[in-house]
Design brief:
There is one protein chain. It contains six helices and five strands, in the order αβαβαβαββαα. The protein is of the alpha/beta class. It has a single domain, classed as Glutaredoxin (3-Layer(aba) Sandwich). α3 links the parallel β2 and β3. It is globular. It starts with a helix and ends in a 7-residue tail after the last helix.
């Protein structure tokens, strides 16, 4: 069941206002992630109040760090269904989870933060997990 778009608009805007690009179709995901080079953050956005309300602010905080991914995208689980399915195909070895946050390097998954790692944790803790991943994988000369 898709939620009414007016209900989701503020949730989408929490990420797009940061410059995170929405991918609404499988074709957009294929284009953005299919030949991705460098570092790419992919946020699987969600309506889930218990986790998503911390995931979005965590991303906002982490993106203020001095080291960030070169590309940032989001798909909306339960709404942009085909785009979400296409994005999750890049998260090899992980079951569907929303919200979730993936960091890819040259199209290969290097960090995955699943719902169970977000749920019940304050946004600053989740943000620190992201900052640690950015420092490890996004900094000049970072390991892959």
């Amino acid at each position: 069941m898709n939620y009414p778009e007016p209900m989701l608009a503020p949730m989408r805007a929490e990420l797009t206002s940061l410059g995170v690009q929405e991918l609404r179709t499988a074709a957009e995901v294929a284009e953005a992630l299919g030949n991705a080079t460098g570092t790419t953050l992919v946020i699987v956005n969600s309506v889930c109040g218990c986790s998503a309300r911390n995931a979005r602010p965590a991303v906002a905080s982490a993106l203020q760090h001095t080291v960030t991914p070169e590309h940032c995208y989001t798909v909306f689980a339960g709404q942009d269904i085909e785009a979400t399915k296409a994005a999750r195909a890049f998260f090899t070895g992980y079951p569907p989870s929303s919200p979730s946050i993936a960091l890819l390097k040259d199209g290969r998954l290097v960090t995955m933060i699943e719902r169970h790692q977000i749920e019940g944790r304050p946004a600053p803790e989740v943000a620190q997990d992201l900052v640690n991943a950015f420092d490890r994988h996004c900094a000049a000369g970072a390991a892959s």
